[in-house]
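Exercise 7b. Backbone tokens:
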């Protein structure tokens, strides 16, 4: 072989050996992608997405620096979720994060059995078949649950706000599995408190408006709103309807009194989203969802909107003001 050919061959081999590690390093250095699936609109969840990012940050991941997030929003159209979940699977994301109701978790779980899923869970994930158990989820899904059997406590707080109340209407989305547990809890609590309960269902905007027409006709003393994802998506409409019909209303999450509602009691949504961010980061580092226990809420907050109370002619007892986590004036 001629000297020139030998040199060319050696140069080509050297270049090839340099390129291979470079390509490998480039592939290894590619940022992981998280798919974020939510049934609602981005504007309703802006502060909760930030809580999710804060959790990711705690786990060592910052969006745009060492992780990319692909967002998919259902805009309230539940039937879009399977297709949106399929998009994320096709995108070959490293983790899928779901929120905005358990319907998002079910859509993701139906779309993949291999990609890890971390979910905010509204009900009992074991009863819904999302996980095998709280401590050992098994499969490819884990997360943090919002449900904590607080319905009875909410009814008690509403009664404390309006002690002369006799009749309370409870509003639920019948498509949410958590309704059964909440109804049983409310019925037991109402007997103890000496209250008469009436139930109304709403799973669409038109049904919500019809429920408030019933409120206008029946004139219950107070309204109990379930912790269903549909109501979270219709937060402004709900608060507006309660104000229009001047009915004292208790909700499950602080976002409602922050939007002008009277009072809320329940777990902190921001804490749940932060925990989901931490779990997503831990999975990116190599942990398996099957080994990460479903986190249950331990912190509950009472939030009272004093301006709304004054508008309704309600004097908030000092005992409630003293124990409130937040008073909005």
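Sequence design result:
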């Amino acid at each position: 072989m001629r000297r020139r050919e030998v040199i060319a061959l050696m140069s080509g081999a050297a270049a090839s050996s340099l390129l291979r590690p470079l390509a490998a390093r480039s592939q290894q250095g590619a940022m992981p992608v998280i798919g974020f699936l939510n049934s609602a609109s981005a504007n309703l969840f802006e502060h909760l997405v930030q809580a999710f990012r804060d959790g990711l940050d705690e786990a060592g991941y910052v969006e745009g620096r060492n992780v990319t997030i692909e967002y998919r929003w259902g805009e309230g159209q539940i039937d879009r979720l399977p297709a949106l979940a399929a998009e994320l699977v096709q995108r070959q994301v490293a983790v899928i994060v779901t929120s905005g109701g358990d319907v998002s978790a079910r859509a993701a779980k139906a779309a993949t059995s291999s990609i890890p899923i971390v979910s905010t869970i509204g009900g009992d994930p074991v009863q819904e078949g999302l996980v095998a158990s709280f401590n050992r989820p098994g499969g490819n899904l884990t997360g943090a649950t919002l449900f904590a059997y607080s319905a009875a406590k909410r009814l008690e707080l509403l009664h404390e706000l309006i002690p002369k109340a006799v009749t309370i209407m409870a509003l639920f989305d019948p498509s949410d599995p958590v309704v059964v547990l909440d109804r049983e809890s409310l019925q037991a609590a109402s007997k103890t408190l000496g209250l008469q309960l009436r139930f109304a269902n709403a799973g669409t905007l038109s049904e919500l408006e019809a429920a408030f027409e019933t409120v206008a006709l029946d004139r219950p003393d107070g309204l109990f709103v379930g912790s269903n994802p549909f109501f979270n998506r219709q937060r402004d409409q709900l608060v507006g309807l309660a104000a229009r019909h001047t009915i004292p209303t208790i909700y499950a999450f602080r976002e409602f009194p922050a939007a002008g509602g009277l009072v809320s009691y329940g777990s902190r949504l921001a804490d749940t989203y932060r925990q989901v961010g931490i779990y997503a980061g831990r999975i990116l580092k190599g942990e398996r969802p099957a080994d990460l226990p479903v986190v249950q809420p331990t912190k509950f907050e009472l939030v009272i909107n004093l301006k709304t109370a004054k508008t309704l002619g309600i004097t908030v007892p000092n005992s409630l003001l003293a124990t409130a986590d937040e008073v909005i004036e």
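Instructor comment: Residues 3-28 form the longest helix (26 residues). The two ends are 90 Å apart (CA to CA).
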